[in-house]
TrEMBL record:
PANTHER family with a match to the protein in the record: TRANSCRIPTIONAL REGULATORY PROTEIN NARL-RELATED, TWO-COMPONENT RESPONSE REGULATOR
Designated name of the protein: Response regulator
Ranges where the HTH luxR-type domain occurs: 151-216
Database matches in Gene3D superfamilies: 3.40.50.2300
Response regulatory domain ranges (all copies): 4-122
Amino acid sequence: MAIRVLLVDDQPLLRTGFRMILEAEQDIAVVGEAGDGLQALDQVRALQPDVVLMDIRMPRMDGVEATRQITGPDRDGPAKVLVLTTFDLDEYVVEALRAGASGFLLKDAPAGELVQAIRVVAAGEAMLAPSITRRLLDKYATHLPSGEEPVPNGLHTLTDREVEVLKLVARGLSNAEIAADLFVSETTVKTHVGHVLTKLGLRDRVQAAVYAYESGLVRPGAQ
């Protein structure tokens, strides 16, 4: 079945461009458009998309609040949110990730990267490109823990292997890349990621990545 995508952006020309790119793919179907966050909420309820391509700055309701409502506990469907951004709005991306977005993408990303991001998010993984994530976290390094703070209690519940997996998730690696790095199967990685989320009370791997940095387990710029 095709991945159902809702386009949310207050610029009609951008929505048209995204539609042209995505509709050229056999496994992706653009089911609707919205020009602001309020319209996005209505369209999500009516159309039940798999992925919402979400702009941040929009009139009436911005992309952060719309993301929070779409992915929150009272959500109406399985939609995942992929945020569109430019680097001068990085602080909004951090808030969108905390609100429940499954990742973020630059507005000027190549067409192939946009298509791949849609597929990754629809499959339940996070679109956290290491280069973009690192630049974001480096920029906000002064707001993150120094690494000298006490280790959060939750980390003590993880096995050594689960801590390794959490660090690699924070670097933006996919399950397949983590499996190759640790010389284990992808199924084993999925099991470890599931255990990490359950033990730390996190919703998804995006929250896990944010947790790893905010807890001081991983430092910005670290390899």
